[in-house]
Amino acid sequence: MLKGRESLIRLVGRRRRFLRRRHSLLTSSAPQHQIGCKECKDEVSTGNGNVDEEEWVDCPVCGKKIRGEDRVVNSHLDKCLTRGSKRKLSQCTLFQLNFCTRPRVTVSSIESDVTRIDVGPSTDDGNICDLASVTFSKNICDLASEMNSSDGPENDIQDESKSSVCNRVNRMENLDGLLKLDDERKLLSDAKTMQIFGLEGSPQHQITDDRIDNIADSPLSLSEKRMPKCVEPSEDDDNSEILLDTFVVGRRFGNDGELTVGAMIMLSRDPENVKDQNAIKVLTKDTDHNKELGYIPRELAQYLSPLIDKFHLRFEGHITSIPQHPHAVVPIQIYSSGIVSFGEKDSSSLQVFNSLRRNALSAAEFSQTHSPIPAKYQHNLLLLLKEVLNINGHLFTEGEKTLLAFLSLSDDSQRLFARLYARKGPWFRMASISYAEICDYEEAVKGLSEAECVTLFESMDKLQNNDLKEVLNVLNVGELRDLISSLNKTHKKIAQNSDRGTRKQDYIARVLAAYQGGLCPNLTSMILGKTGRCIRISASAESVFWRAERLFFLNGEQDLSEFLLVDLGIVKYPAYNCIFTDQIFPDRSDLLSYEEAIEVAQIMDESLDENNNELVSRCVEISASNVSSFVEEDRSSHSGSMAAFLSCFSASWVYSKVILLGVSFLEHEQRFKEAINLLKLLLDKFKCDRRRGYWNLRLSVDLEHVGCLDESLEVAEKGLLDPWVRAGSRVALQRRVLRLGKPPRRWKTPSFSSSVKRKIVEVHVQGRPLNCKTGVKNVFYGEDGDRCGVEELALQYYAGEGGSWQGVHTESGIWLTIFGLLMWDVVFADVPNVFRTKFQTAPLDLETDSFYEVRRDLIEALLDKIEHGMAEELLIMSWESHVGTACRGVNWDKHSLSELRAAVTCIGGPCLASICRNLAQDYRSWSSGMPDLLLWRFRDDYRGEAKLVEVKGPRDRLSEQQRAWLLFLMDCGFSVEVCKVSHAPI
Predict the structure, then answer these.
(1) Helices then strands (H, E): number in the chain?
(2) What are phi and psi of 807, to 5 degrees?
(3) Any bridge partners for residue 318, and if so which?
(4) 3-class DSSP state for residue 551?
(5) What percent of the chain has pLDDT over 90?
(6) CA distance 583 to 393
(7) Rounded-to-integer distance, Cα 648 and Cα 555, Å
(8) How many other β-carbons are positioned within 10 Å of the β-carbon of residue 55?
(9) Own/partner pairs for 733-738, CB < 8 Å, 24+ apart?
(10) Cis omega (within 30 of 0) on the bond before 60?
(11) For residue 641, what are the CA distances in angstroms to 75, 358, 646, 735?
């Protein structure tokens, strides 16, 4: 795989179905400039064209196409005038240029400069994580104001009167749903709240905290947000019979069987349930065999389970009604079949009993007026949209907010859209769509179609070629073969002019050829006869929801499935506070530029898959054009600020990833001169970037490839003066300087010569090989006769002949795990802007310099404890407190607590503190390349020693990153060796 390809794939994430700017990006005129030149010539923006119906204007200074928004124009002009570019005589003056091409729009909005959301850690045992989501504030009029907030071309936001907003809300469909949400908010008087602060820190809104529920039984259970308030016991409580009306939920976990009204049921505890220790099963009361129907709602089970366990109550009941769908909740009535007696000395037990009884009654009563949520994924999608609109509402137009206003659609429409959006598609047969929770498909489709959220294929006379190809993909091979046969009977030319392939794609190609050639005018009708009605997510809805999902998770690797992983208990995210003081995207133009760059990255990735070298070159050209006009901000005055660690959310950063992949592509094609120009461009435009080490190294190497040895040496020497060149890249450049800088090019020996040339102890081990093929992983026979790799062979050597060493083959894994556990409180400390969503496993600045700078005092205080021998105690406390919780670098399954304790004890405080400090200061540069083996052995006084070993096979050699680690560890006082495994003589 090309260098940078994997990183680009992670950046793009799930590929989008529709790239709205693909045509404009790939058909815009090529910029006339030489890549890599310091003085960039005039160029045409790749984003010209009607994107999102925005106006584009020509800059009077540089001539570049820019968006016609005041903020964009002013910012661009400031940069152009700062560069001192000369204005051409043929260009318009500032007074001649009309920037305000669109009328101002006056709309209502909530305050868009909400800047802080502080969510405290949850105290509920069942919660997996808290989601910093925002519900509607104050009342329904505020909700309407939020959902109809505007982001006009010049961000001119004016307030409307509260009454006019309310009138507008009253005209919305399904208003009852909105009012019901507002009623729920009022019921949560004791719920955990969050304070939203402005830039000056004054409270502006108080809002309730929606939670992500750790659902133990079913997504049909009540959420934590809907939990009734606990009731304290009163004096008139008694131990009379308990009668409750409730539901059977989680029926997908039960046995299938017919239900009848009045059928007798009984409750049975399920204490071994791994998801919920309070789980209670509902069984049919049958003398022969008790069938399992499902579970009692979790909110009620937490009160009934102690009544069953501690007070030995038995609950029976009957089914009161039968639902229409097989997996829907089943209404039941249950009652206790006994009475508990208490003596005079059991006053405390009586008090506990009465408290549980009253709270069970309260939970059951609450569930009657607030039925269980019928589809958890629907709730999750609404939760995501509400938070995105609340925090990033200024990034959406009114039309986009209309698409996101799911509260105005019916439940069936919401559930159908959520189902289709999560599937691959893009087209689906209506006849094959079947979900138990959707009652009326026709009404659901009608609502989505009216909201322009879906596109239907049912009577269209003409389809785009790409649409037709996607529709044909829903047919199986047999159906395609029948379609071809029908066409051949009426149009024999099709069989003569097309290939005879038997694969599905061959059949589709033949049908498309017939459509493009116009041989069958009624082809779409014939296809529709085979497929039936088809549906897909519309391009506009997919674009808007993709944007909302990206803003929520801030990456392309996570999607709505993260909610499901949390609900099922598969992933447990850590607890931390989300504190906002700045926006990632201050205005819409920044977001659109970023999205445009993501589209270029996706086209680049797709082009590499298709081996379309021409399109790959075009993507690199577009990226180089945009980077050429980029002016990097001075970060010296922004230590630890947004500019330091959120630059990865800028278009220029994405384009630099495309260019770096383009460099690898050009090097693979041996087009070194073009690669040199691109590397010079990156080094010229990004002065403060941790990737500069790799760029300098590749530039020096490529210059050597074209025979420019003097320039290659000069680049290496200048790179060593760059503070952003670190770790393996620095060692590689130092070794290049020593190799290229021999007399007569250089007479003076560099000061780092002795350090780089230090000898590392080598140990040679011979093994009996199983294979000796080049390019294949070496496999040997171990001492026990089993097959093993070189690392396992080395472990056997050190356990025997090399000494009584214990150890693990871990590479960087055990070190990152130890670092994560010891530094847990530091990693998840309250630092503004580094936690933007409740689905993070690390702060956003972990891999930047600001991580150490902002937390210097906390880190140094913790390192002082580690250095003075408290590492093992800190490790045990962190493990017991957070075991199973997801954290960057921590692998709970690969390393046991006993192994970690042994390693920490034998390494010693000073050496361990040095490694942790190194990772804290530059996690990105030092989180890879660590030695393969960590070995330890104890002495009698519970003290020990450790050894780190890099293992190399017969044809392997040290990488520069590995060499950098070994030299660093030697400086820290570690015992370091390189174990070279070779073939034993036959």
Answers:
(1) 38, 22
(2) 180, 180
(3) 264, 333
(4) helix
(5) 36
(6) 11
(7) 10
(8) 15
(9) 733/693, 733/696, 733/697, 733/700, 735/960, 736/697, 736/700, 736/701, 736/712, 737/713
(10) no
(11) 20, 52, 9, 35
Whether residue 621 contacts residue 31, with contact meaning beta carbons closer than 8 Å, is answered with yes
660-688 residues labelled b (16+ CB within 10 A) or e (exposed): bbbbbbbbeeeebebbbbbbbbbbbbbeb
282-291: long-range pairs with CB below 8 Å, 24+: 282/248, 282/254, 282/332, 284/257, 285/316, 290/266, 291/254, 291/255, 291/257
Q: Tokens for 970, please give them.
A: 């030697």
Alpha-carbon distance values, 221 to 150, 292, 413, 662, 887 (Å): 36, 17, 21, 50, 29
Assigned token pair, 320: 């009161």
Can you tell me whether residue 981 is helix, strand or coil? strand
- Tell me the CA end-to-end span of the chain in Å, nearest whole number: 37
What Rg value do the Cα atoms of the chain yield, rounded?
33
Q: Coil, strand, or helix at residue 314?
A: coil
Average pLDDT over residues 548-555: 94
3-state secondary structure of 757: coil
Burial class (CB in 10 A: 0-12, 13-18, 19+), 84: exposed
Here the tokens at position 459 are 């009577």
Q: Which amino acid is at 251?
A: R
Q: Which of 933, 837, 827, 936 is nearest to 890 (CA)?
A: 827
Q: In this structure, are residues 43 and 29 in contact, taking their beta carbons and an 8 Å threshold?
A: no
Report how far Cα 920 is from the mean position of its chain's Cα atoms.
Answer: 23
| 605-656 per-position pLDDT tens digit | 999 999 999 999 999 999 999 999 887 654 444 444 456 678 889 999 999 9
* Residue 81 confidence class, pLDDT cut points 50, 70, 90: low
* Mean predicted confidence (pLDDT) in 481-498: 67
**What's 638-691 look like in SS3?**
CCCCHHHHCHHHCHHHHHHHHHHHHHHHHHHCCCHHHHHHHHHHHHHHCCCCCC
The answer to whether 192 and 146 have CB atoms below 8 angstroms apart is: no
Picking from 117-131, 426-440, 572-586, 680-694, which range would have the lowest pLDDT averaged per residue? 117-131
> How far apart are the C-alpha atoms of 741 and 743, rounded to whole Å?
7
- Say whether 722 sits in a helix, a strand or coil: coil
DSSP annotation of 867 reads: I
Which amino acid is present at 392? Answer: N
Determine contact, residues 766/729, Cβ cutoff 8 Å.
Answer: no
